[in-house]
Structure formats: structure tokens, C-alpha cells
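Re: export button greyed out
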Amino acid sequence: MNNIAIRTENLTRDFGSVRAVDHLNLEVPKGIVFGFLGPNGSGKTTTIRLLLGLLDPTEGRAEVFGYDTRTQAAEIRERAGALLEHNGLYERLSAQDNLDYFGRIYRMPAAERAARIEELLTHFGLWERRTQIVKDWSKGMQQKLAIARALMHRPPLVILDEPTSGLDPIAAASLRDDLLSLVEQEGVTVFLNTHNLPEAEKLCSLVGVIRQGKLLAVDSPDRLRAQGGSPMVEITGSGFTDDVLAMLRSRPEVAAVEVTNGRLRLDLHEQIEVGPLVTAIVTAGAQVEEIRKGSASLEDVFLTLMREESQEA
Amino acid sequence: MLTDIRTVFRKEFKELIVATSDRAGIIRLLIWVVFFGGLFPAQSGRAWLYTLLPVLFWSWMSLFYVSSLAVSAFAGERERHTLETLLATRLPDGAILLGKVLASVAYGWGLVMITYVTAVIAINLVIGQGRFLFYSPAVALGGPLMSLLAALLITGVAVLVSMRAGTQRQAQMALYVVSLVLFLPLLLSQSIPALQAWANDLVLNANTGSFVLVGSLVLLLAAAIALGLARVRFKRSELILD
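Workaround output, generated via the alternate export path:
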């Protein structure tokens, strides 16, 4: 049985002379949260439109659950729930009416629709406000409702474009839990466009990094961190004079040295014992209060990839 | 397909009701009914019941009123950023198009038909003298028919215009130009005395039945072409503008 939810082969889309998506090759397995990371204008939204069959590719092809986006887009949209760039809510209608409309679109029976609306609105803390028109709501509340709408018909694929934008930290954390439970309990596949790298790190078992329409990397966050970022040591203390820094830069195991707000960050070429390094720092006259070993975060990897691509361009 | 059309129709109609049920909307509706469904017909007297005057007037009202509803349903939905989410659902293109067309026409034409009824009441109150006066058969049937066909025609044109318009205002401006071209001969006729006399004679003395028959066929053909073109061109990939 095919375990792939999304597959693209040389997927390309031009708008006039601008290439928005450039020979994208991607495979997203079923039942995971896939994070699609990239700066503004990198082609993330165009990719979503291509996957939903809202745009035709200029070259290449894409499949969702084995359905071709060009010829079987209706089958794909039947199985997808989407929160796109804008929340897409009908502001003159109430929360209940917004969800009811989408329930009807997906031909949910009346009783099931009513139960699902109550379940979702209660879960997102919006049940008491169900009859209010959406226009007067805060951005965060509207965003919660738009997410509820994407989940309304229990789709096996949920496509979310920046879902936590506008949400307070508690609501954002709760949404992350919801998404993880959807994946774990119902086997839903989530395609997540995000700028929020810590969020991607927490949620996604696979991430793709895109820039100027090109896929720069695709892997699990752990492996990307391992591949893309060197190990590092962060030392909190004082007395990090120019002499101390010069001494550190001259050591072969040290790749880079940086001091920010009394914190010394050492990027290392490889994983080493830090004892001799700390001894050398103390001997050179600095005081050490705290030492933290770590590897690069997903944000570091992302920024490195962006820099490398800029230099190549 | 019918269920999908009904789903879209229901939601569009509800939105139209909500959008016009605030105090300003109700006042506008009352002014509309009092002026176009009361004062104007009462002032025209029997001419409103037996000549082409109301048939042309209702057709013009349909064009005028339904055009703004249709533009709001298509270009307005894009401007309010709800179109893309709707296109990302399972709804077929045809159901989205027809549901919106029918809602705009039903609401706009429904308002015109309110004035059809109130006009009879107003005329009977003013000149009825105890006898119930009603439209001649040609006006009674031709008025609703021609105004309905005019509503369908302008909705088809509104869809085509809205396809490439980034905003509701752009689409509305384009439609004004189309309406101006359609009504230019009538406007010109009012500034040339000989033509004005001919137009007045046509409105008051023409054979209403024949005019309604020919006019309805012309409108039917034009509406079929406009809606047919709209159906062919209304595709998701054409609606995402960037």
C-alpha cells in the first residue's frame, strides 16, 4: 500500500518571467506533520495552491494520495482541509454559520454537523460566542475558528499556512497539541507552512527548506541539525578580553568565536571534551560561571542554508 | 450538483440578508419601495399598468441592482479574501458559479418584484375608486420576465468582468461602462427632440405584447451567451490572479 501522501516531481510554476516554484521534488509520508520552511516569497503558498489544484504547474507534476493535481484535483480537495494565507472567514456570518457552511459543502448530515460544530467550538473556547458575527472578533479568535473550519469534515490531509500567527502562546501550544494528537490518533497528514522555527522543531517529523522556489534541504529536524550545524559551547562569565578571544581563535578545534551580552559562544569543528578548553580560558584570566554544550538549532540550520544559497546565487 | 448549488445559494442569500438588515439597509430598502414601488407608479397612473413604461423600468432596476450584488459575490469575495478558501473546497466550479448567480438574481429580482406588487397597491389607492386595477396581461407577464432575463444577463456580464478585476470597485467601474453603452441610445434620445418624441411614443403607445416578446427573446439570447461564456471561463486556475 502506498504510504506517500504528497509526491512532487520537478514541480515548477512560472508567473510570467518569475519562477515561483522551481523543479520541486518532494515526498511526504502519510500520518506525519511536514513543515515547509522558507522566507516570504519563497514559493510556499504557490506550492500549496499547486497541491490543491488551484493552479496548474508549468512543468512537472504532483500527486496527493495518488491523485494527480492537474486531472484529479476534485478528489484531492475532497480529502483536504485548508487554512490558507488569509483566514477566509465570512465576517458577516456567525461562527456557527461559517462552520455549518463548510459542513454542508462536505455533505455532512445535519446531526453530525451540529455535533462537530459544538465539539470544535467548545475545544477552541468559542462555543459561548457561536452566534456572534465574526467581524467583531480578535485576530486570534478568528484564527482559531479558521483552524476549526479546516478540521470540520475530518480530512485526512490538513494544509495550514502559518496557523499560529495571531494566537496567544497558550492557544498556540494547545493547537500544537491538537495537531500532534490528530496525527497520532487519526493518522492525519499535516502540511504546515511556517516561519516559526521553534514550532517546526517541536511539531514536525520532516521539514523542507525552500528558497526562491528551490528546495534546499529536506530531512528530519534532528538530522538537519546534525548535518547543518556544528557543535557549540556557550559559556557565561566575565573577562572575555581580546587576548582570551585571540587565544581561542588560534586553537584548531575552534571554528568561530563570538561574545554577546557576556556570553561566549564557541562553534567547534567536531564534538570534543570541553574540559581542556575551559581550563585554557580560566588560565587566560577569564571567569566561568556556567557552561552549556549544544548543537545548532533548526533556526541556525535554516539561516545557514539561506546564507549558503545567497552566496551561491 | 444540485445539492452543492443549493449550499452555495443558501449561504450567499443569507449573507445578502445579513448585509442589508442593519438600520441603514432597512432605510435604503424602505426608500426604494416607497419611491419606486409607490410614488413613481402612482404619479404615472394608468400608464404604469398598461404601457411599456414599467416593463422598461423594472428591467433597468434589475440591471442596476443585480449588477452590484453579482460584483460583490464574485470580485467582492476575492477582495474579502474568502474566494481562495472556497476554491480550496470540494465544490465544483459550476456549483459555485450557479449558486452565486442564482442568489444575486433571486435577491435583486425579488426586490424588483416587491415594487411590482406595491405599485399595484399604490395605484389602486390613488386612482382605483373602488375598482381593482391590475396590469394588462402583457405587462403582468412581460415585466417579471424581462426583468428576470435582464438580471441574468447582467449577472453573466458581472461574472466575466469580475474574473479579471482585483477589487469590487474595479469590477463595478467596468460594469458602469457596459451599462452606459447599453443605455447610451436612450440617453441620447432624450437630448434630441425628434428622438425624444419617438421614444416617448414607443414607451406609451407601442404594442406591449410584441415588444415584450421580441425584447424577451433578445434578452434571453444575450443572457444565454453571457452566462455560457461565464460558465466556460469560470475556472479555479483563472480565478487566482497572482
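Residues 12 and 22 of chain A are 5 Å apart (CA to CA). The button fix ships in the next patch.
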